[in-house]
Structure formats: structure tokens, C-alpha cells
Design goal:
Layout lengths: L13 H6 L4 E6 L4 E4 L1 H7 L3 H4 L5 H4 L5 H13 L2 E9 L5 E12 L5 E10 L1 H15 L9 H17 L4 E9 L1 H8 L1 H16 L7 E6 L2 E6 L7 H14 L2 E3 L2 E3 L2 E9 L6 H17 L5 E3 L2 H22 L3 E10 L5 E12 L3 E3 L1 H11 L2 H21 L6 E5 L8 H13 L6 E5 L1 H5 L3 H10 L2 E7 L16 E4 L1 H5 L5 H16 L3 E5 L4 H9 L4 E3 L9 H10 L15
Bound molecules: ligand C2E and magnesium ion (2 copies).
């Protein structure tokens, strides 16, 4: 019986006392092996006394205590005989439990260490309460979304990371349209329920790395910390607007609201978090001023580009279905004879709202959305059918070139080409495919050899602006090189530049490739190219792209035309 229980009447055993403790208690020997534990030990850790008796104390201390903390614990025990601190132990169920442990070293009368006694309590409730408090401080009570404070923290972090590498940050400021009207007329309870539904919908739109925060009554902010593709902010804004345009069912009432969104980008529009927020806010006011239910970029140019892209994306497919595309053919003239021996098929779109569009306006969107595959196949079929028709009309046969995007160049292209040829009854030698250097970067060797086996001609387009290595062309069955118009435009401006075009022609010939010069717009360029032995020219000087019937009359004439009427664009 310990001295402090002496004289207690009726007598009380120490284990009766220990059994009353809500704290877990263990006693270990000098070699740190557990000798005894109280019932609370088993309740907290899940280990029965028989599970732990004889086991090392490290069953309690280890796991979530790093080596340095462990060393300082033993040092304290040696010097002062006590240690108090927090650690986590693994319960019998394998769960990590945060504990507050107080550990004492017990010595006998000769100061020899005989035991360790540990007393610990379960901290998980307290930790959970702390976490709840932190959550409450960082989140909006009504919707559970991050609040202005947490948004600020994340924004600061996002800007710091963005400064380190390339990825821009986008901030989207959203203000609900007509919310105040609903709140005033139907009451705050309905208003609150509506805000909760709005928050849930907004939350469902974001990726895990993004944040949507509620920063005011009906104001929300989206933080997109890594914008990989330039169109992501506009697409997100459009998704937000569509999500808000769907009516909300609140207690049987069908409520209709809308959203105005302002977008500001870091680092393009702002130098810091404050400015970024202010600019997104002011862009949002511009969207409201336009009548709401729309978005605005802080930089106006981005807005019109993004809006156009969205319009295009939505109408490309219907454009194909409604036969809004058409093809102009630009003559390819043989040197030195001046005869038209081919034509390049160049796509145009008669858009119901935007008018006639050149390929530069819509091909990039078609490529991004993958619609280029269907559009490209349409061009292929139409160009083959047209060429076959000219031949059946008795015109001198020419070879028509069709542009092929990198995304189209996959194994299916082979069957698309062979069925376009078969359906139009066109001999393969009257078809050429123009590929870009980017296409050759992909895994296309097999596809190109199969295309070549069909008998079509393969050209490399825009040579001189990309990778521009003649050597690697040897790996592919290429017949023809089209020298980009930027190299042709420089002919004669300086000796060096003109020699680049000349040298390219010579090198291509040494590789048994024929050469086409693109974009010859002046007589002296034609002369220079003829002197260098260039095989074909294409350019405004000889002819602009023409509608099919004009090309037919040109073929009937049998000679090259000079600058026809301007069908499409100015000579820039
Ligand atoms: P590209 O294949 O290099 O076609 C030549 C472009 O240069 C055409 O522009 C043509 O009108 C223009 N051009 C020809 N001669 C001259 C000249 O003397 N001066 C100037 N400044 N330009 C000249 P276009 O029709 O606007 O086509 C632009 C690009 O769009 C094409 O470049 C091609 O890469 C792409 N494209 C056109 N049609 C298609 C298509 O059906 N499918 C795919 N994937 N791309 C297409
Ligand atoms: Mg081309
Ligand atoms: Mg070209």
C-alpha cells in the first residue's frame, strides 16, 4: 500500500484508485517493457492488458513522433525525470489517435531507475473541435463555401506559385442577377435556401484544385490557380452562366436568376491580389452593364475573342450539317511554262451571323474541338468530287491539294482518302495531301506509307517556319515541299534571305523533292524562283483562290491568269 493511502479507512487498494481514472495509465520497467495497464488504457487504445504486457513502450510512443522529438523526450526523462507532450499512437483498430502523455521516470532510494509511469488522455475530441473552429473561421456559415479570408490565403499562395513558373491565374467574380428582388419579395428564408442551392451548383463546377468562395450576399469568386489552356476561364464563365440560368426549385417555387461574371488574369491584368480582385469586380460590372447573364474579361480584346470562340464552337457542327462550308481553289502554276497544273483546296465558311470566314478564323477551334476530323473529311470528299467533275467535263486533268491537320493524320485517314477517291472515281495521282511539319513530329510513319501506297502525292506545307530540317524528311515518303510565304516574301530584300529560299530549293532537289513556292505576289519573285529551278508557284501574282467555275474557265483558257477580282481577302 503506498504511503499516501496509509490510514485511509476503510482501506483502499491502489488499483481501485487507478481503475477510476479516465486517463490511460501504464507502468513499464527500466527496460521500457510494459508491466501493467489500467482499464482506461484498454478503453482508449483497444489493447487488452494481455496484448501489451511485456511489449515495448514504443507501442505507445512511436509512430507519429519523429526521431528528434523522441530523443528530446528521453533526454528530459533522464535529466528531470518528467516529460509531457503530445504524440499519436496506433490503436488496436489501426487508427492514429492523438494523445496528451505525461511520462515519469521512477527511481529507488539509491536513485536507480526502476520504472516508467505514463498517464495519457485521448485528444481526438479536442482536436476535432479545434478543426471545427478553424473550419468555421475559414468558411461561410450559410453555404459552407470558403469565405473571403480563406480565398485570400489561397489567392496569395496561387500568385506566389504562378510567379515561379508560367501558368497564369484566373479570378472570376460572380454576382447573381435578380437575387435582391427574390430576397426582398419572398423573404430571407427563401433567399438563404436559394443561396445554398446556388453554392452547391457552383461547387459542382470546379476541379479539386480550384476554389469557389462566397465573399458577399450574392457575390462569389472563383479562383483557378493553374490555367493551362487560354480558353479555360471563358469556358468556366460560360458554364457558370448556364448553371445559374437553370431555374431553382425552392420549396415548390420555381425561381429564375442569372449571373454576371467578370474575369481578370494574373499576371496579364494585375500585379497583385488586390488589383486582380478589383479588376475582376470591374469586369463583372461591365457584364452587368451589358444586361447581365454574360461574362466580360478585364481586357476587352479577350472578351471578343472568347465570345467568338464560343460562337464558333457551337456553330461548327451545324455549319457542317447545313452545308455552310465551301471551297476555293488557288491555281498551282508550273515553271517555266506558266501552265496551271494543280490547285490547292482552301476552305471557307459562310457563317450565318459572322459572314464569310477564312480558315484562320475557325480551323484552330475545329482542331481543338476535334471537329477538324469531320470537316477535313468533308473537304477531302468535296475536293475529289470537284476534281473528278472537271475531268468529266473534259478539262485538262490537274492535281488538287488538300490540307490535312495534325489531328486528322491517324490510321483512319487512309480509309477516308481511299473511299473519297473511290466514290468520286478519281485517280489517286490527281490528289495531293499537304501536311505540316508538326504532323511529322507525331507517330505517323505507318499512316504516311499507307497513304503513299494509295498513289496520292504527299507535300510538306509551310516549310521554313517550323522545325525546318530537310534531313528528317528522308524518313517519310514525301514528294513535294511547299516553301512558306514568309521566305518567299523576303526574296530580294537582302541577299541572305533570298539565298535561304534559293538554298532550300537546291537542298529539296538534292533530296528528289519537287518544290512549290507559296505566296508569290510579285513578278520579280516569279522570275527569281524560275531562275532557281523552282517547280511550281502559287500566289496572288498568278491568281487568288477562285470559286470552282472560275478555275474551270482558267483551265479552259489554258494559261495563267494575273490577279483576278478579290474574292476573299486583301493582299496583306
Ligand atoms: P496554306 O495551306 O499555307 O494555304 C495558303 C494560304 O496562303 C491561303 O490562305 C492562301 O489564300 C494564301 N495565299 C496564297 N497566295 C498568297 C499571296 O500571294 N499572298 C498572301 N498574303 N497569301 C497568299 P487561306 O486560304 O486563308 O488559308 C490559310 C490556311 O488555312 C492554309 O494555309 C491552311 O493551313 C489552312 N487551311 C485552309 N483550308 C484548310 C482545310 O481544308 N483543312 C485544314 N486543315 N486547313 C486548311
Ligand atoms: Mg496548304
Ligand atoms: Mg502553306
Amino acid at each position: 500500500m503506498p504511503a499516501w493511502l496509509d490510514g485511509v479507512e476503510p482501506p483502499l487498494h491502489v488499483e481501485q484508485v487507478l481503475a477510476c481514472f479516465a486517463e490511460g495509465i501504464f507502468v513499464a520497467d527500466a527496460r521500457r517493457r510494459i508491466l501493467a495497464v489500467n482499464p482506461a488504457f484498454s478503453i482508449i487504445t483497444g489493447f487488452a492488458p494481455t496484448d501489451v504486457t511485456g511489449a515495448s513502450m514504443s507501442r505507445l510512443e512511436g509512430v507519429r513522433m519523429d526521431a528528434a522529438a523522441c530523443r528530446s523526450m528521453w533526454r528530459a526523462l533522464r535529466s528531470t525525470g518528467h516529460w509531457r507532450g503530445e504524440l499519436s499512437c496506433c490503436t488496436s483498430a489501426g487508427v492514429q489517435l492523438p494523445l496528451a502523455l505525461s511520462l515519469s521516470a521512477v527511481r529507488d532510494e539509491h536513485a536507480v531507475l526502476t520504472h516508467y509511469v505514463g498517464v495519457f488522455s485521448d485528444l481526438s475530441e479536442r482536436k476535432a473541435e479545434e478543426e471545427r473552429m478553424v473550419f468555421r473561421a475559414q468558411h461561410d456559415a450559410l453555404t459552407g463555401l470558403p469565405n473571403r479570408y480563406l480565398l485570400g490565403e489561397r489567392l496569395t499562395r496561387a500568385l506566389a506559385t504562378a510567379s515561379g513558373h508560367a501558368g497564369p491565374v484566373a479570378l472570376l467574380f460572380l454576382d447573381l442577377d435578380r437575387f435582391k428582388l427574390i430576397n426582398d419579395s419572398l423573404g430571407h428564408r427563401v433567399g438563404d435556401l436559394l443561396l445554398r442551392s446556388v453554392a452547391a451548383r457552383l461547387q459542382s463546377l470546379i476541379r479539386p484544385a480550384d476554389t469557389v468562395a462566397r465573399v458577399g450576399g450574392d457575390e462569389f469568386v472563383f479562383l483557378l490557380p493553374h490555367v493551362e489552356q487560354p480558353d479555360v476561364p471563358a469556358t468556366m464563365a460560360q458554364r457558370i452562366i448556364s448553371a445559374m440560368a437553370e431555374p431553382f426549385d425552392i420549396e415548390g417555387e420555381c425561381l429564375s436568376i442569372g449571373a454576371s461574371v467578370g474575369i481578370s488574369m494574373y499576371p496579364a491584368d494585375a500585379a497583385d491580389a488586390d488589383m486582380l480582385t478589383r479588376n475582376a469586380d470591374s469586369a463583372m460590372y461591365n457584364a452587368k452593364a451589358r444586361g447581365g447573364n454574360c461574362f466580360e474579361f478585364y481586357t476587352a480584346k479577350l472578351t471578343s475573342r472568347a465570345v467568338e470562340r464560343l460562337i464558333l464552337e457551337n456553330s461548327l457542327r451545324s455549319g457542317l450539317e447545313h452545308d455552310e462550308f465551301f471551297i476555293f481553289y488557288q491555281p498551282l502554276v508550273a515553271l517555266p511554262t506558266g501552265r496551271v497544273v494543280g490547285a490547292e483546296a482552301l476552305l471557307r465558311w459562310s457563317h450565318p451571323i459572322l459572314g464569310i470566314l477564312g480558315p484562320d478564323r475557325f480551323i484552330p477551334t475545329a482542331e481543338e474541338t476535334g471537329l477538324i476530323v469531320d470537316i477535313g473529311e468533308w473537304v477531302l470528299r468535296r475536293a475529289c468530287a470537284q476534281n473528278s467533275l472537271w475531268q468529266r467535263q473534259g478539262l485538262r486533268p490537274i492535281r488538287v491539294s488538300v490540307n490535312v491537320s495534325a489531328r486528322q493524320c491517324r490510321p483512319q485517314l487512309v480509309s477516308a482518302v481511299s473511299s473519297a477517291l473511290a466514290d468520286s472515281a478519281l485517280d489517286a495521282r490527281y490528289l495531293a495531301l499537304e501536311l505540316t511539319e508538326t504532323t511529322l513530329m507525331g507517330d505517323v510513319g505507318d499512316t504516311l506509307h499507307k497513304l503513299k501506297a494509295l498513289g496520292v502525292q504527299l507535300s510538306i506545307d509551310d516549310f521554313g517556319i517550323g522545325y525546318s530540317s530537310l534531313g528528317y524528311l528522308k524518313r517519310f515518303p514525301i514528294d513535294n515541299l511547299k516553301v512558306d510565304k514568309s521566305l518567299i516574301a523576303e526574296i530580294g530584300i537582302g541577299d541572305r534571305n533570298s539565298s535561304i529560299a534559293g538554298a532550300t530549293i537546291a537542298l529539296a532537289h538534292s533530296l528528289n523533292l519537287t518544290v512549290t513556292a507559296e505566296g508569290a505576289y510579285a513578278a520579280w519573285q516569279g522570275r527569281y524562283l524560275r531562275e532557281r529551278g523552282c517547280d511550281l508557284v502559287q500566289g496572288y501574282y498568278f491568281s487568288r483562290p477562285l470559286p470552282p467555275h472560275k478555275l474551270a474557265s482558267l483551265l479552259r483558257d489554258g494559261r495563267a491568269v494575273r490577279l483576278g477580282p478579290s474574292y476573299m481577302r486583301s493582299d496583306t
